[in-house]
Queue: 3 jobs
Job 1
Amino acid sequence: MGEVIHGVSLFNDEDIYLLKEGNHFRLYDKLGAHTLVVDGKEGTYFAVWAPNAKEVSVIGNFNSWNPHTHKLSPRWDNSGVWEGFIPSVKEGALYKYHIVSQYNNYTIDKADPFAFYSEVPPKSASIVHNLDYKWNDQKWMEERKKYNSLNSPMCIYEVHLGSWRRLVEENRCFLTYREVAHLLVDYVKDMGFTHIELLPIMEHPFYGSWGYQMLGFFAPTSRYGKPQDFMYFVDYLHQNGIGLILDWVPSHFPTDGHGLVFFDGTHLYEHQDHRKGYQPDWGSYIFNYGRNEVRSFLISSAIFWLDKYHADGLRVDAVASMLYLDYSRKNGDWIPNQYGGNENLEAIAFMKRLNEMVYGTFPDVQTIAEESSAWPMVTRPAYVGGLGFGLKWNMGWMHDTLFYFSKDPIYRKYHHDSLTFSLWYAFTENFLLSLSHDEVVHGKGSLLNKMPGDEWQKFANLRLLFGYMYTHPGKKLLFMGEEFGQWREWNHEESLDWHLLNYPMHQGVKKWVRDLNHFYRNEPALYEIDFSYEGFQWIDFRDYEGSIISFIRKGLSTKDIIFVICNFTPVPRFNYKVKLPLGGLWKEILNSDAKEYGGSGVGNFGGIEAIERPFADNTYELSLTLPPLGILIFKKEIKEQPLKDFHRKKNKKVVTKSS
């Protein structure tokens, strides 16, 4: 067991050149632990990047964790890669790298940055593991472009896998990947969501970080099973027509000693200067995006999840913290760039390269930026100066909308602009409207508890919020539990409060969201032109006294037209008149105040006729009954009559794809 065969390598000269250049984006095929057969001997090839090490050895349960038994050798090409083949070390072996630094003989035992599998935390050893799996999602992979297109419906269910549901009766903390796959797919299919987004599934030492303090950039957490179990999870989603988006965190990493920090006795992955290399908000380290090998490491991680796990998209966390050198820092605590500005030029270049490589390799996926500032052109291609993301979370819409909804309706007329302001910038980016986990933690209260009024009004407000969200331009995201009106804040240590579905009001919210999802997916007017003014038209945004807004959503075909009107007060409005560009019967398709959703049943008996009036603007008039704290969604099936003032040339192209 003490034998190490040197001279065995998965690297060639081109690999080393690309690594040094910062352009090797499949390092997971080279670095890490890979089982091989060499000269008829089965074993494992180990390779690790540690350029400032004096010695590197592999320690594990196969050599009693002895650092003197299996020493790796450095490559001759000054790449900083140490490698060696150890016979008889097979799949399932536990291991770490024992590193002796060139500086002060500093020694440390490190987990493998490229490990495919790790021990269940708080244990931290890496595990030799192959990623062999027979996929059964060929149909999805061949057709997923139409599901992930920016011209397609996208309603995302955000999930923390460890707390979505637990088997309390079996006294178990977590469901396995395979168990939750069937339960979650059945639920999501019934509810009508198109995609699931998982809070970071990558291995993370502290469960309370929800995965955002991750160290396993190439390993799904072992808390829920093995890598093949997670592959089964993804496979089963795809077989049932559901896409998967993974949260991914290239912005920072935790300080745990077995991880990336001070890896070879030097600041290898992070900046040495704390003013650039330490994130005070999260107590974590910031990657050195200017180091070529670090860029290769991160982009290889992104490609890995799309390649080996068939993910359909990556949501990149905390982009604003990467863009700005002074993010959450006081004067004197940050270092300006070479031009004296606060822009992180190295991080900007990294993100552009990331998106170029992701879309160049997988043109049918999406990258999504969680970016909370007004940085321009986040979702425009890198070649025109943008960051190259496909979508951006609309944090402004989220903040203003929740601020508005939190107000007692009697005061909402004074904050009407908070409701309408989003349409001034709604088409400057490819926006995704998110009501995420961040809005229901840390004392912020659940969505239901943010709503003012008595219990009936809280539920009515919540249904109105969801209806407004689904008809507003932009793709959609809801966090688990919001769809049935959970009262409590989300707690990652407990299951959602599924027992609430025994109560009619919670069932009503759930049915409302389900009907919204299915209606949204079947109405091109609500998703085909999300990122252009051509898909939206205000009918009336000026009625601040009544706290009422109305607008039209349009599809590529002039036959696809949806009319929406919202009443943000608890007072029903009778004979409320609006002008529309089209006459005839408008069918009331959805009404959030319907009794089946827990409402009072105020509405328009299924539809109403728009009557032509001798107005100067040649429009038609609807006289409506508006329910209290309600949204009405109407549809007009147009056969031959064109929309008046429907300013679109018949064959005009609508450009929405960013990358």
Note: The CA atoms of residues 136 and 235 lie 6 Å apart.
Job 2
Amino acid sequence: MKELNNVSIRPGVTILSVLKHLNYKPYYALAEFVDNAIDSYLKNENELKEIEGEDFRLRVDIEFDNNNNRIQIKDNAAGIHSIDYQRAFRAAELPPDNSRLSEFGMGMKSAACWFSNKWQAKSKALNEEIERTVVFDISKIVEDKIEELQIKTTSANPNSHYTVITLYEVDEKMPIRRGLGKVKRHLASIYRDFFRKGILDLYINGEKLTYTSPKILNVPYYETPDGENIYWKQEVDFDFGDDRNGGKLRARGFIAIMETMSVSDSGFALFRRGRVIEGSADNDEGFRPPALSGSLGSHRYKRLFGELHLEGFKVSHTKDGFQWDDNMEAFLEILKEELEEVDSIPILKQADRYRVRESAKNYQKVSKKVVDNTADKIQNNIYQDVQNVISRPISDVVEEPTLEGVSKSYYKKFPLNISNIDYMVHIELSYDETIDELIQVGDHLIPESKPNFKNIGVRLSLIHPFMVEFAGDDHKVIEPLLRMVVALGLSEIIVKKSGAPITELRNNMNELLLGSLSKL
């Protein structure tokens, strides 16, 4: 076999300079390199396992070197064979077998050029004795109209096999901080099926990526809460039209309800050839058609999720979306019919109507966080806030009622002087079933060591239907509600002490909420 000294990049040299303007996102660009590695592994799986053993797994390592503005992607797949070398580096030249993940003949070139003007590909093909390295300098290639690149070769063990892509001078497209976390989440989500099948180990900066599926709800139907538990997962498998080649458009997978509501995990992941195309991760990427997921922010929107493998569809060349043509409506219509069949579980109704009362453990944790934060934030400034709403001397003092003791609650206390009376204010969140009222204000049961202090308690019930419906165990919702309840309770005390008209209750509350209760 004649050794390769040069690689032709004709035609399409000028295409290379515009690839940086593709509508990529970092994780989809990086996925192109992972796709190529998986494709190489699957096409050479038997030969690889003959050399490495039956337990051999594909490993892809992505390293971000922020100090040198460099990204390196390494894999232990079968490498780029000499017979494929010329094609591999020419833009838009289809591989002879494009039935797997290497499909358009653009992935490595387009992703590398999107990240950087200068990059290098080093590869050692299985059963060959040469390691080959090619360097792309796009600015030089375009400026000098270069149509062939020199190949650097070195001798290597015929049993070794790898490809190393190095992207140099990566600037604004380098994922950092939150962007790096997003890359990890998306890539873990995109390749979840290959993880599960034991095909791929994917590492970023030495960290092995994993994907954890949301826990599926296992409770009775909401209309029969005392009935048997149902595992709320519905398998689906149906045809819904013909593709352009006369084959069938098919969907298979499952739809399920999450045990715990989560906007980031809800929505549907749409797969093609084993990898996620749409709905990979995060709030902005989930596939959530209103016909299936319901309206934005609804319980169904936050609980329903699923995985659907689609066959017969084309995808965009960046593999970030399906080419639906006129088939989207038919797909959603038939999918919904599948979920509403007589022998199916009523999964959409359950997602709409099921309400969960959080566990005592969750309530205890969130109660401590919310009460501590609220008390700590307001205790130093609430005195002045209260003084600002007292305009008349005390008259016709009315004693506050005593609150009943509860076992499931968390409270925090701090001293407060109201109209020359020393109070010990207790802010409490309760998740006790014996409490029917949403808001209670009264003497707290726990006595103070100082006899000159009076106790006052402001209690909010977490398991009142209002809180179950709108708050759950979300501390970001509970805390502002608790602060409003504190304002209401203190306003009630002030009104009772002053003998003011009942309308002053609202006025006092509004004024209190302008002070420390509104500060983060």
Note: The mean pLDDT is 83.
Job 3
Amino acid sequence: MSKKTGKKKPTPSVKGTLEITRSGMGYVIVEGRDKDLLVRPQDFNKAMDGDIVRVKIKDTHGKRLEGVIEDVLERKQTEFIGNIHVSENFAFFAPDSQKPLPDFYINLKNLNGAKDNERVVVKFLNWEKGAKKPEGKVVSVLDSVNASDLAMKEIIIQNGFPLEFSQKVLEEAESLNDIIEEKELAKRKDYREELTFTIDPADAKDFDDALSIKKLSEHEYEIGVHIADVSHFVLPGMAMDEEGYTRATSVYLPDRVNPMLPEKISNELCSLRPKEDKFTFSVIFKITSKGKVKEYWLGKTFIHSDHRFNYDEVQQIIDDRQGVYSEEILLLNSLARIFRNERFKNGAINFSSTEVKFKLDESGKPLGIIVKESKESHQLIEEFMLLANRTVAAHVAKIRVDKKPIPFPYRVHDTPDEEKLKPFVAFARKFGYKFDMNNEEETAKSFNQLMIDVHGKPEQHVLEQLGIRTMSKAIYTIENIGHYGLGFNDYCHFTSPIRRYPDIMVHRVLHEILENNIHPDNKMEQKCIHCSQKERSAMEAERAGNKYKQVEFMMDKLGEDMEGVISGVSSFGFWVETVNEKCEGLVSIKDLYDYDDFRHDDTEYALVGMRTGKKFRMGDKVQIKLVAANLEKRQLDFEWIPGLESLKQKAVNAKKKKNPKKRNQN
């Protein structure tokens, strides 16, 4: 209460993300606050799980902070899967969800042909003031060929991505063409005569980057990084642009891609397919054979790709030192090696993470799991894309309008959280590895030295995984704090506009700078936050899709014994990743009660037996048996198989030592 007026101070409102538990209670997560705000169901005010909301803080007289939702700022999910129930006068829709969701009212004119009890996708329309239920319309009746197909669609929708494009967006895309007009030709540099090729995965359809190479002298080359000019076709104000921004990213699941833009754009107009003239936005470098960049040029271009390589073909050329365009490939690879070594010398961190790819049959059923390796062919492309991205970011970072930096979507990565780093450093020390934490540069060097020293050792997996967990998450923001993991002062995403909306934003700002017609966007930070959130949602969808396929693959292996590595530990058990299949499941602590009383030691990242001293520690190899595979929950359950001397026997022996029997007095 104010002393001067005697009136109560207005309670503040904050912005955050609503998370609803299975019990129905809500919590609003507010960035910068240690504790979440409790929101009771009667105070949701039409908000649903995952929505970004404005919440008013209640006066709770010093107890736990509670809030009342005032407004929904952004819906996480606008499409839902469930069952439709049709009566004579109206219909209602019951969405599938593990979290509480309201039923939707469906006007009969919005049934789109759906019949009673059919499985459908419904789009959220509105939630009128005073209405008890939201209103929706049926987008499509689900006619999935199998349970796996339906599961993938549910994963996409549950993470806030629509399955289909609206008719308006599709019509807009179909109306476009790639005819090269004379006035457009005059605005661009023509690189169609230069040797140009793409290098992508064998199954790729959208080729958004290409490399060109021309020898200038004995030790100097002109190398172009050419990126699909999506912003030439997708203009601000178009329905396609609004849809691209809303999605913000393509979603890659094991058996499909849910694209950010319609296929007419992603696979046809903008895809840098061989033997076709294409609009591109390029960074052209003059580079010496020793990897020194002497100068660069940025601008709009035309290219004509001469050849489409996949990674395996390029790797074969690198290994054999012969093949089509081998001289050019080998030169680019030698430069990429120089750039890569230079990066690590300047503080980039060399973390390696395991990625899996599924071998699928025609129906999408997994037949096998392949561990993806990062080979030199991948690193070749990676290094030139990194070079282009950092060059664009550094160029923009120098520009000022009214003495202020231009709002621009930098890709930043903060330094490690010291509170997360300390326990990791202490744990690494137990294996004999030292860390210098005097400054950011020395910490990065210590990480890299650790990755070299640990390679091939039993503790490699655990220290790599824990090291990655100490890192901050990379995000988009206008605050240019640099990219710690890559060791760059300036960095952005310029090279994948077909599948990432921030790259389109980068292209637009850069084009304005080059045209000297800059219009600073005061909503850029808001757009960056949205794109970062959608990126996280896409990653969650991709993890869920992989997990589903892993469980589906493992269902045929029930009862089999396997070798695994402990990948995580908690108070209720430990997770094991199988060595051969790279599939993760849980060994419940309940299944260990017969052997010992295990307690969680978070400093050791281990479960420790109170009687036997047996440890289950992250990185340890264990033998396990697959006992359950639940597709609906995307969950595997393992049972631990003891070694030759069982823990039961160890426990008995320990008890005997503690309480020895009295000798017979006779």
Note: The chain has four domains: 13-74, 172-412+478-546, 418-471, 558-656.
